[in-house]
Design goal:
- Belongs to the adenylate kinase family. AK3 subfamily.
- It comes from Pangasianodon hypophthalmus (Striped catfish).
- Its main location: mitochondrion.
- The chain has one domain: Rossmann fold, CATH 3.40.50.300.
- Helix content is 51%, strand content 14%.
- The strands form 2 sheets. A 5-stranded parallel beta sheet has the order 2-3-1-4-7, with helices on both faces.
- The longest helix is centred in the last third of the chain and has 25 residues.
- The two termini are 19 Å apart.
- The structure holds adenosine monophosphate.
- Adenosine monophosphate (AMP) binds next to helix 2 and helix 3.
């Protein structure tokens, strides 16, 4: 069997991480594993971890490391025969260390977006608190303004996405992410991309992955995911 390929994508809220991840998944046939989506599935299914996680997500806080690792590592174990791109995990050094002991990564993509750009994007972000679904009034608006597409319930703007709290929140993200980035840089697998536009970053990410992912693997993965 060809070698499997494991990648992580790091980036602050509003960095375009979700968009890049979706493009990687469809262009290279990697499984896109999003910790946020996985948490939302657990919240919807009212699992023990989901019920616990919900209280943190509603406050805009990080879910504690032990809850995250207990959720994510078994999920990764189910994926031992697949190549994947992990999005949203690890977010802290403790999570990165837990991931290290579970598997070996090939590439870490880090999105380094100017603070002004992130502020502008997040100002327009609204969420549906019960499910954690996120909308952006500019790029990804709900079908009906102010209302969740699925439940029809009202959307709210996080205290944290309001302009006054945003800068503090992004700084906090940076502080928590720095040791994670440093760890991957020291391992020699970190690839950092900086720009204000996702469409300008994508060609660089795509050519990096084209060089790193063997073509036979990309073809095989695409065949199993479609
Ligand atoms: P996301 O969809 O990645 O923005 O995640 C939504 C929310 O889930 C975040 O605001 C956090 O509260 C929580 N979350 C997702 N991934 C993690 C993680 N690796 N560690 C802690 N909390 C997380």
């Amino acid at each position: 069997m060809s070698k499997l390929f494991r990648a992580v994508i790091l980036g602050p809220p509003g960095s375009g991480k979700g968009t890049i991840s979706e493009r990687v998944a469809s262009s290279f046939g990697l499984q896109h594993l999003s910790s946020g989506d996985f948490l939302r599935e657990n919240i919807a299914a009212k699992t023990e971890a989901g019920v616990l996680a919900k209280t943190y997500i509603e406050k805009g806080a990080l879910v504690p490391d032990h809850v995250m690792t207990r959720l994510m590592l078994p999920r990764l174990e189910e994926m031992t025969r697949h190549s994947w791109l992990l999005d949203g995990f690890p977010r802290t050094l403790a999570q990165a260390e837990a991931l290290n002991s579970a598997c070996e990564l090939d590439v870490v993509i880090s999105l380094n977006i100017p603070l002004e750009t992130l502020k502008e994007r997040l100002r327009h972000r609204w969420i549906h608190p019960a499910s954690g679904r996120v909308y952006n009034m500019c790029f990804n608006p709900p079908r009906v303004q102010g209302v969740d597409d699925i439940s029809g319930e009202p959307l709210i703007q996080h205290e944290d996405d309001k302009p006054e709290a945003l800068v503090a929140r992004l700084r906090h993200y940076k502080d928590v992410a720095k040791p994670v980035i440093d760890l991957y840089r020291a391992k020699g697998i970190l690839h950092m991309f900086s720009d204000t536009e996702t469409d300008r970053i994508w060609p660089y990410v795509s050519s990096l992955l084209s060089a790193k992912i063997p073509t036979d693997l990309a073809d095989a993965q695409r065949a199993t995911t479609h």
